[in-house]
Design a protein that fits this description.
Distance between the termini: 60 Å
Strand content: 15-25%
Radius of gyration: 28 Å
Strand order of the largest sheet: 20-21-23-24-25-26-27-31
Number of strands: 39
Helix content: 25-40%
Structural class: alpha/beta
Shape: globular
Length: about 900
């Protein structure tokens, strides 16, 4: 069917929110945005706005995951594919016979087949789907449940997969959100709940990807066995610092240095403003500036050659920090904060000499998919500085949103910063990720120029570099649609030259493609000079903001990843390929052409280009600036170490962003109730991050399993193609990684509290790995080696050291650091509790010793757990934050 006809019919039948539009704009040369849709038959209806609102309020919706088992979920024609079956129940309290309605909702995986003849499901764009009645629909009957079954692609392994905010649309009326599909907030944990999702009960059918899937659901009894590896130790925390210093020499045992009277800071040649933030954190813990306090002397020395290094000497009557730069002094003060606890401000005398493992110690936050507040970012920067992280990669533009005000291009935020039910995308982007039909949703928003300058200045005061990123040329739908709306507006005003100035799409491009997130219109057309004009405008305006904030723009992250086969039928690109003098001989070269051209443009401005490893791998290194950053996001268990080594061997700044350990939007534990995506890992807790050996990626095969809990082999020897050409091999002597970076992608992260839950406490172990190289890590073998569960390079002695050091850090987190996060009002994740009933008595343990545990028997009163206690029937367990204000997610077990 003709796309234009479909789009026009949709607009006529569905209307838009908050504006008036005609169904077509003759001045527009932009393709319709709706890929495909089914239109409900027009009938006389009895809807009023009040009736629609009441129906949406009363309609009960339940989403149920049925099976991921291929033999059950896939049709005969799909037996070699991966499929799942799910069901949506609709229960109405009224009789509704009308068929002139559509229900829109976000479906993470596309629907392959609808299994219920009364309904049809059609994907609009991305994850936006619509449910419509068919001619077999017999109406909603009061008290009757209609079940809509469907088959989808791949699998659904989490109760957080089904997105919220289904909404119903009737021509001429304002859409109404179906109340039962909204998230709720658990009063005790502060976490989002999805009451419309039926709890998983069948591990085999619901929580396994394939028959080879060996991952064990982390129920209370499973965690009880895992937590046996750690034990409470009150002694190890006194002199423990996160991240671990290079060397610590403790010279007392009775903690004779009391900071309760405060500190008297002697700045000497150090600018007070450069350490003010570090001193403020110390004050928040109870150590204030005071003329009568112990003397803290900041001494500038020239013989500390490694940037950010410091020396800390704590004596009974004086504390001295020696460093050669502002970061060193701040980190020395941060180490004082790390040594104390809020209820014990005394220290041992000691000497610390410390330097960072990596220059690049980063945290990435995606605010594009779902927006996160300026305050959350400021709080993150403060905590990054507290734990000696120094790079904030701020991902501010993607398909689902543009989050930074750009002078001269107001459409980017007027339209691209919000999602609502406007299928013309003239006032907003279409809903995605369960954002719902209204623009005032909290997942919408942007940073004003003033906001961004404040973020930059806040980061400068904490020695954190902000790396902005607006993903290009793929992942660019928000920019494309914003500039198309700008085009339509200016064309209507008769200003054709201005309309074309920043246009990013070729109206005559007939290319059919689908991105990883199922968009068919999310890639910049890289053959149009207006695209490069747009990119240059954006980067120039961002650079101006950095200049105003006195925070120079040293790096800009292009993105460059997941470009999904665009341009093949674009007349502009076909003409460009036929006539260019840029060395482009095929449309397949266009992605590399864009990255190379933009990278060199950035380098000419004194800005280091950065991109994700898949896009960077498509370039010709000879055409790239010598100083380029590549974020390695390839999965180790899928031979990802090979590309990591290849790009590091180029001499690029190769920054590890390894998904199965550094993606903080993945679940903490193997539990379908945990938030997050899971395409590369389903259990990424703090201990796994601590266990990571970043300088020897393939050696992790000795201690890890793949996503299905199975062992894997990492062959790090030279590989050649059929002609004998070397295609991959080990790291070269003298080459390595520039750093590591944690990632929070926000598709499933809808609020600041959920973001902090996903980031903390994992970010503390990110800091540990980025700053300190543990003595138990397996040395890299430049001659090449093959690693697996039995290869033996990770010896029993090294494993014992690893576990002993983890026990110290686990105690430090449980007894010191969580209390500090409480004081900073950080909504970190409290661990789920291990528990087991033995001979009728409840036994419990915890991943971070020192945290208190509560239990209740048969839904009674929550009681503090002190020792094994007799229980009957169903028992629940949970942990409590040190300040008592927050509770962890409870787990249940039975004594029946």
């Amino acid at each position: 069917m003709n796309k234009t006809i479909i789009a026009s019919a949709l607009l006529l039948s569905l209307g838009v929110v908050g504006c008036q539009h005609s169904s077509s704009d003759k001045s527009s040369q932009v393709k319709p945005d709706v890929q495909t849709a089914s239109i409900a038959s027009a009938v006389n209806h009895s809807w009023t706005q009040a009736a629609l609102n009441e129906f949406a309020q009363k309609l009960d919706v339940t989403y149920r995951m049925v099976s991921n088992v291929p033999d059950e979920a896939c049709s005969e024609a799909q037996k070699d594919q991966r499929c799942f079956i799910a069901e949506i129940d609709f229960t109405s309290t009224d009789n509704i016979n009308d068929t002139n309605w559509l229900i829109f909702y976000s479906q993470m995986r596309p629907v392959q087949d609808v299994l219920t003849p009364e309904f049809a499901i059609t994907r609009v764009q991305g994850d936006l789907h619509q449910i419509s009645p068919t001619d077999q629909f017999t109406g909603f009957k009061a008290g009757e449940t209609k079940t809509l079954g469907f088959r989808g692609e791949l699998w659904q392994l989490s109760e957080t997969d089904p997105m919220p905010n289904y909404y119903i649309v009737v021509e001429g009326l304002t859409p109404a959100i179906i109340t039962s599909t909204q998230v709720s907030i658990d009063a005790e944990t502060g976490m989002e709940q999805r009451p419309y999702v039926e709890a998983f009960t069948d591990a085999k059918r619901q929580y396994r990807r394939t028959d080879k899937d060996q991952l064990v659901w982390a129920k209370a009894e499973v965690l009880f066995e895992t937590n046996q590896q750690v034990s409470l130790n009150n002694q190890v925390i006194d002199n423990r610092i996160i991240p671990t210093p290079a060397s610590v020499n403790v010279t007392s045992t009775d903690k004779p240095v009391d900071l309760a009277q405060g500190i008297n800071v002697l700045y000497n040649q150090v600018k007070p403003s450069s350490v003010a933030a570090a001193l403020n954190r110390l004050s928040r813990l109870g150590v204030n500036a005071s003329d009568s306090g112990i003397k803290l002397s900041l001494n500038t020395v020239n013989d500390i050659n490694v940037p950010e290094s410091y020396q800390l000497a704590v004596a009974k009557d004086e504390i001295v920090i020696s460093a050669s730069d502002e970061a060193g002094f701040s980190y020395g003060i941060a180490s004082i904060s790390a040594l104390i606890t809020p209820d014990d401000l005394s220290l041992n005398t000691l000497e610390i000499k410390d330097s960072p493992r990596y220059d690049f110690r980063g945290m990435h936050v995606d605010v594009a998919r779902n927006f996160h507040s300026k305050q959350m970012i400021l709080d993150l920067i403060d905590q990054m500085a507290a734990y000696k992280l120094n790079k904030l990669h701020l991902h501010m533009a993607d398909d689902e949103g543009w989050r930074l005000e750009i002078d001269g291009l107001p459409e980017l935020t007027d339209i691209g910063s919000k999602r609502c039910h406007d299928l013309t995308e003239t006032t907003c982007l279409i809903p995605q990720l369960g954002s719902g039909p209204f623009a005032d949703s909290k997942v919408n928003g942007f940073y004003s120029k003033a906001d961004y300058i404040e973020i930059l200045q806040y980061a400068t005061a904490r020695q954190v570099e902000v790396i902005p990123s607006m993903d290009m040329p793929g992942h660019s739908r928000a920019a494309i649609k914003s500039m198309e709306a700008r085009y339509r507006k200016l064309m209507a005003a008769g200003n054709e030259a201005a309309a074309n100035e920043y246009l990013l799409s070729d109206a005559n491009d007939k290319t059919v493609y689908s991105s990883v997130q199922y968009y068919s219109d999310n890639t910049l057309n890289v053959c149009m000079e207006s695209t490069f004009h747009f990119v240059d405008k954006v980067i120039s305006e961002i650079a101006k903001l950095h200049q105003q904030a006195n925070h120079p723009l040293h790096r800009y992250h292009i993105g460059a990843d997941e470009t999904a086969g665009a341009w093949k039928q674009s007349p502009q690109c076909l003409t460009f390929v036929a006539n260019n003098d840029k060395g482009v001989t095929s449309v397949d070269d266009l992605g590399a052409y864009f990255i190379e051209r933009l990278s060199n443009s950035l380098a000419a401005k004194g800005i280091e280009p950065a991109g994700w490893s898949d896009g960077m791998s498509h370039t010709n290194p000879a055409n790239m600036p010598a100083k380029s950053q590549s974020n390695i996001w390839d999965v180790i268990s899928h031979d990802g170490y090979r590309l990591a080594h290849k790009q590091a061997n180029l001499g690029w700044d190769a920054v590890l962003s390894t998904p199965e350990v550094l993606y903080f939007d993945f679940p903490y534990e193997a539990d379908p109730k945990e938030h997050g995506y899971y395409w590369a890992g389903r259990a990424q807790n703090s201990q796994k991050i601590f266990n990571f050996m970043p300088d020897n990626l393939p050696a992790n095969a000795e201690q890890w399993q793949d996503i299905e809990g199975n062992p894997f082999t990492a062959d790090d020897t030279v590989k050649k193609d059929e002609t004998g050409k070397v295609i991959s091999g080990p790291l070269q002597q003298g080459k390595g990684f520039s750093g590591i970076q944690g990632q929070l992608w926000s598709e499933t992260v809808r609020s600041d509290d959920v973001a902090e839950y996903m980031i903390y406490p994992r970010v503390l172990m990110l800091a540990e790995k980025a700053w300190h190289q543990a003595d138990w890590e397996v040395p890299y073998q430049y001659s090449g080696a093959v690693y697996d569960a039995n290869s033996g390079f990770f010896t029993a002695e090294l494993r014992e050291k690893q576990q002993q050091q983890w026990n110290e850090l686990a105690n430090t987190l449980g007894q010191k650091e969580f209390a500090k996060l409480d004081k900073a009002n950080i909504a970190y994740r409290l661990p789920t509790v291990g528990a087991k009933v033995i001979n009728g008595k409840l036994h419990t343990n915890i991943a971070f010793p020192g945290l208190q545990i509560e239990y209740r028997d048969q839904r009674g009163i929550w009681t503090l757990f002190k020792q094994p206690v007799e229980v009957t029937g169903e028992v629940e367990v949970r942990t409590i934050s040190p300040d008592g204000n927050r509770k962890g997610r409870s787990l249940s077990l039975s004594n029946r």
